[in-house]
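Hello,

Following up on my earlier ticket. Below are the two sequence lines again, exactly as submitted.
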Amino acid sequence: MTDIVSETRTRPRVISRSEAVMRRLPAPLARAVLDPGQTFLRIVGFMILLTGAVIVSIPFFWMLGMSLKPDRQVYAWPPVWIPNPIQWKNYPTALSYAPFDRYALNTAIISFANIVGVALSSSMVAFSFARLRFPGRGLIFGIVLTTMMLPSLVTLIPLFVIFARLKWINTWLPLIVPHYFGSPFFIFLLRQFFLSLPPDYHDQAKIDGASSWGVYWRIYLPLSMPALATVVIFQFMFSWSDFVGPFLFIHDDNLKTLSLGLQVFLQQYTADWQLLMAASTMMIMPMLLLFFFAQKYFIQGITTTGLAGR
Amino acid sequence: MTLRLPTLKTHQREAFDGYLFLLPWIIGFFAFYAGPMLYSLYISFTYTTGVSVPRWIGIDNYRRMFFEDPVFWKSLGNTFFFVGFSVPLTMIFAIFVAMLLNQKIRGMAFFRTIYYLPSVVPAIAASVLWLQIFNTRYGLLNIALEGIGLPRIAWLGDVNAVKPAYVIMSLWNFGAAMVIYLAGLQGIPQELYEAAEIDGAGGLSRIRHITLPLLTPVIFFNLIVGMIGALQYFLPAFIMTNGGPRNASRFFVLHVFFYAFGTLDFSYGATLSWMLLILTAFLTYILFRVVGPRVHYYL
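Thanks for your patience. The regenerated structure is below:
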């Protein structure tokens, strides 16, 4: 559409009155005049996007509102949606209840270690399932999926026994080490992504004498940036907010994570909802920030580069 | 990892590499998964409270499950209701939102982050909020219903409304699936759209013949993983209604929890869990057989 507009600009000829008007319009408006149907669709799409954004963010703003309420409005019935007055001091108060800086650092270290481990190991295993042929592949893949199907409630106690025998209780090892052996969720996810990459590269690289490792490391990983960004976003969310793992395996206050820290508002001082929500609001910020920066890898066209001559 | 073994043929070397790449998972499986899984299978044939020495009782737990535990069937029905509505609706919703968020509009990073927001709100905060939204007198949902002239509904107190209530609540958790679709949309070669545009294919036709077929690998992933997850739906129902009213929201894993940690009949909890595993594996197998061949892979 822009081509049409710029074309009229370059052509030196007598122009009609309507064209003269068109020239002075900003580009989006000019487009609207030239193709009303398309523009109508775009506007409708944008309105849906905006309405949806308002609806899905209600819970967040409710949480934010709750975190800024004075004590007496927390239990008010019917619920008060907008706090009056806004009580900013809930935030510093919440932070003073526990050593949250220590917890945040601990959680960040564990999360980082988990992301590195799970991305590496899961992508290797996924590559094997997607692009290498070997006897028993289907069966083993079936077993990988099966490990997701048993409710973790019943495996927790035996798992605890294993970690206790390894003398790993009250260390971060039970929270980190298992991530270095692949997660069924990410193995399946990455397998699907690898299978949707055209095998042309693979074949070409094999002809050029590349090893399996070379194909995996230099072709499949770089072409899977959106998928790997997904793994990073998800694993950070899982590790950052994991409660059950730290709850079972960590007792030492110096080793605790943020989700354990939040318990302080629920037990020790009955339930301080406004403080819990203030702490929760602060806790979700890193997840949102990471998503904000990681989502830039969700850009079309990455996989098409280097496809020349197909 | 270059393997220069002259005695190996090409396909043998490929198989060798295949197992080598699998090694992390194989080690992890035997170290952390296999033992606990087999142990839980073993205790399903015993009686134990989880800490006591298991006493072998054969298939008693399984007989009890099928013939003496009516709530087992009830919870199975509840779970199927939830899976049947929540999985397909979440899927449609997430694909739709992912497509909206895949346009080139200024500020898209901002929109995407807002749509991701619900996924990071902690479960406990979300549950407290939804208790208020579903409240019969003051809840947002009933205020909206009254606004359009419909009667109020006791969302969490009515046996017929409580399951739809959880389906509605689960729809709001579309963020994870949406992120995966968004990543999947990036793999679709732009040339295909350009070619289709030259051929005069409209927007809907492009979605039907390019976007959806090429998205099938991740649609299939979300279908399987969504089903496995929905079959294990637990936390919100545990916090908000704990199975009530009259077991109408007692989903399967809630039933497992009730025995494993409520009455400390740990072995019966394991029996129920293995029942769920067998059921899930069966459904997954069917989906791989029926839907699998329609998925678009480059093999």
